[in-house]
Each structure stands twice: as structure tokens, then as C-alpha cells.
Write a structure and sequence with these properties.
Layout: E1 2-5, E2 8-11, H1 44-55, H2 62-75, H3 80-91, H4 94-112, H5 117-138, H6 142-152, H7 166-180, H8 183-207, E3 213-215, E4 218-219, H9 220-241, H10 244-249, E5 257-258, E6 276-277, H11 279-298, H12 306-325
Antiparallel strand pairs: 1-2, 3-4, 5-6
Length: about 325
């Protein structure tokens, strides 16, 4: 079964903790020796038993028996209602999306609470190092792989079994934009990644087949969702950034005004030209942010993970616009 989502054609999400090897002596806990059959319309615990039976795995130790019992108890639906809820959560990757949103919201919360950017960077980097180290170790050691799968496997996609967790790219992307770009531009990029990307994925899954595809796997539904959601978030964010109190406490690139008057160097400004300020400046910034977010969703940058490219491309687009049309406070 295939699902079309926000620009990506992906297989139906299968929790990583339901993947098993054929050879009991070489079980990594992550990479199946044969493709997992996701076309069967069986309940999770039935598919798990069938898969193990077909591979003739013998669990000779009490540790593996306990592990099997844990898998059965954790995947078996308790009722039709629970089964429907389970399928919804897995198909739409709700847990995964909530995690991504919460990380971005936490970073922004620290920012508005006055935590200096260096402290936020250090916290981000520490989390990145810990997660990357754990992800590397789980590819090398069976015991760590089993623990990793049981703890965070439900947040991972099947294709991440033999690659790196996308949250690593998420943390790397947020770290880079905070290190490279002005703080207000960086925060807007992080909010785009947290909310606009999530909206694109959700509406792409729901309406991709009802709209046209802009290119291979990229649906109009997902792109429009990213554009609209980013524009709405930007309206609130740039209104907040444009406030005098924000600029007194922080150094921001957007000072609440935009200027489309660019005279030759050394010449006095045109008398009929004035900067755009107030609500109209926020409206323009919101439209530009929405378009930039849609563009970052659409672009495939050298095949890199979206969690890395979306914040970088979004921040670059906003920074470029403010560098040209920003008011006197631009830097």
C-alpha cells in the first residue's frame, strides 16, 4: 500500500519495533533480511507472528521470550476502537509530528523567555550529539539496537531502519539556522519547519490524489498547505518582532518597516518615496514568508532530508528579501 504525502510517495508507516530479521544469530533488531509485507490486511500482532513463523526463528533464551511477549502485548489492539486509533496514529505519523512541533515550540519558548541564543545553541547541540551517538551505536550493537527500537521505534519510519533518524537532521537544521542567520529570521525558519512542514505532510496525505502534482511526488495540496500555514504563523510572528519591546531586548533583522526605494549611491532619496511600516509591512512579510515556505517544500536540494533543507532555504529566502527591502534596522 502506498500513500501520497506532501510531495513524497511513501509506503504505509510501519513502526520500527515490528521489524525482525530472518537469522536469529544475526538479528540487528532493525534491518529485515526480506521486505516486510505491508499489503496484508492483518492486525499488527498477527502479522508479527506470521513473520516470525515464516522465518523459523527459534528463541532459545528467556531474554528473547520476554522480548517476544513485550512485542505482542505492545502491538495487540485491545478493542476495535483502540485498533482504529492505532492505525490512525501510525498512518498519519501523529506521534512523529507532535515531536517535531514540540521541539520547535520549545526552542521558540526559550527565545521569547529571554534565554540567550548561545544557551539555546548549546542545548540544541547537546541533544544533537546524544541522539546522533545513540543512532550510530544502534547500527553497531544488537543490545543497543533493541533498546533504541523499543524506546523511539514508534517515531521512526521503516526506511530509517537502515539510515539515520530524521530528528537528527531536524536538530542539525535548527542549529545551523540559529548559528548562521539573525535570530528573528532563524526563529521564523524553525517555526516554518515545525508547523508549515507538518501541515504540508498532513494535507498532502489527505488531498494529494485530488490535486495535481507539481513534480514527482510533490502535490499542490501539500504546497498550498505549507504556504498558507506559514503565512498565518508569520503574521503573528512578524507582528511580535516588529514591536518596539522586542527590538529593545534583541537584535532583529526586521525592524517593522520595509523600503522599496533604492536610489543610486550618493544621491538623496526620492521625496515621494517612503518606507512601508505597521500592518502593511507585516502583511508583505507574511506573504513573502508563505511563498518562501512553499518554495522550500518544493525544492529538492541534492536529495537532502527536508528537516535540514526547509529551515535553511526558508531562512535564506527571508534573509535575502530583508537584505534588499528591509528598513533601517536591517543587517
Amino acid at each position: 500500500m502506498h500513500i501520497h504525502c506532501d510531495g513524497v510517495t511513501a509506503r504505509k508507516h510501519v513502526p520500527i519495533f515490528m521489524i525482525h530479521d530472518q537469522d536469529a544469530e544475526k538479528v540487528s533488531g532493525l534491518v529485515p533480511k526480506a521486505p516486510y509485507d505491508r499489503t496484508e490486511m492483518k492486525e499488527p500482532h498477527v502479522r508479527l507472528i506470521d513473520n516470525m513463523a515464516s522465518t523459523n526463528i527459534t528463541f532459545s533464551s528467556s531474554r528473547w521470550h520476554a522480548h517476544l511477549g513485550h512485542l505482542l502485548s505492545s502491538t495487540q489492539p485491545k478493542s476495535p476502537t483502540n485498533e482504529a486509533l492505532y492505525n490512525t496514529v501510525q498512518n498519519y505519523e501523529i506521534s512523529r509530528k507532535l515531536l517535531h512541533i514540540s521541539v520547535g515550540v520549545l526552542i521558540f519558548y526559550w527565545h521569547i523567555q529571554g534565554v540567550v541564543i548561545e544557551k539555546i545553541l548549546n542545548r540544541n547541540l547537546n541533544a544533537l550529539i546524544i541522539l546522533a551517538a545513540g543512532d550510530t551505536l544502534r547500527h553497531r550493537f544488537i543490545s543497543i539496537s533493541a533498546i533504541y527500537r523499543r524506546v523511539v521505534g514508534f517515531l521512526m519510519r521503516l526506511e530509517e531502519a537502515n539510515s539515520y533518524n530524521s530528528l537528527i537532521y531536524y536538530l542539525l537544521g535548527t542549529y545551523l539556522v540559529m548559528r548562521i542567520f539573525p535570530v528573528d529570521v532563524a526563529m521564523m525558519g524553525i517555526l516554518i519547519l515545525s508547523f508549515a512542514d507538518t501541515a504540508a505532510a498532513t494535507f498532502g496525505r489527505l488531498y494529494a490524489t485530488k490535486t495535481v502534482y507539481l513534480r514527482d511526488g510533490k502535490s499542490l495540496a501539500g504546497t498550498l498547505a505549507a504556504c498558507i500555514s506559514a503565512g498565518l504563523i508569520a503574521a503573528a510572528f512578524w507582528s511580535y518582532v516588529g514591536a518596539d519591546q522586542y527590538r529593545l531586548e534583541r537584535t532583529s533583522m526586521f525592524d517593522g518597516s520595509l523600503s522599496f526605494c533604492h536610489d543610486a549611491k550618493g544621491m538623496p532619496p526620492h521625496p515621494d518615496c517612503s518606507a512601508i511600516t505597521g500592518p502593511w509591512a507585516v502583511v508583505i512579510m507574511s506573504i513573502i514568508t508563505g511563498l518562501v515556505a512553499a518554495g522550500s517544500e518544493f525544492v529538492n536540494l541534492l536529495g537532502c532530508d527536508d528537516n535540514l533543507t526547509i529551515p535553511l532555504l526558508s531562512c535564506f529566502g527571508i534573509w535575502l528579501f530583508l537584505s534588499i527591502f528591509g528598513g533601517t534596522g536591517s543587517a
